[in-house]
Design goal:
The chain is built from four helices and five strands. The protein is an alpha+beta fold. It has a five-stranded antiparallel sheet with strand order 4-3-2-1-5, covered by helices on one side. The C terminus is likely disordered.
């Protein structure tokens, strides 16, 4: 009883000719359209960015200011194959070539240079004489106790 009602609900079998090429094209058109949209909106721009990044990595030279994937800014001081030595100021690090995310533009380079000069003068003014005396007094009090 159940199977008879199920077979009746499915309807009569279509005994006509197989689907023509135009009907198949209409069925696959949405799929082809989705693939084209993904290609032009996602895949193609990503490949272009990867090619530009590879070109930038291949053109690295000593003395250029770069940003690493960790967010550090530094100047390239040595290139040995895929290992690049970057001067971060007081520290020198060796990183893989692929961990350099980009070059720093001229505007940021000038700000970096000014910041370095400003840092040297501010570090001299950081501890005035009064603070040094107070710190020295704290040390003598702690040693007496």
């Amino acid at each position: 009883m159940f199977f008879e009602s199920l077979a009746h609900a499915m309807g009569a079998p279509q005994g006509g000719a197989p689907a023509g090429p135009t009907e198949m094209l209409v069925q696959f058109a949405p799929l082809v359209l989705m693939i084209a949209v993904f290609w032009f909106l996602l895949i193609r721009p990503q490949k272009k960015r990867q090619q530009e990044h590879k070109k930038m990595l291949d053109g690295l030279r000593r003395g250029e200011l770069v940003m690493t994937s960790g967010g550090f800014f530094g100047r390239i001081i040595d290139i040995d194959g895929d290992i690049i030595t970057v001067d971060l100021g007081e520290t020198k690090v060796r990183i893989g070539r692929g961990f350099i995310t980009g070059l720093v533009d001229a505007k940021l380079q000038s700000a970096f240079k000014e910041g370095k000069k400003g840092k040297a003068s501010s570090s001299e003014d950081r501890a005035p004489k009064e603070i040094e005396k107070r710190d020295a007094g704290d040390d003598s009090d702690s040693s007496e106790k």
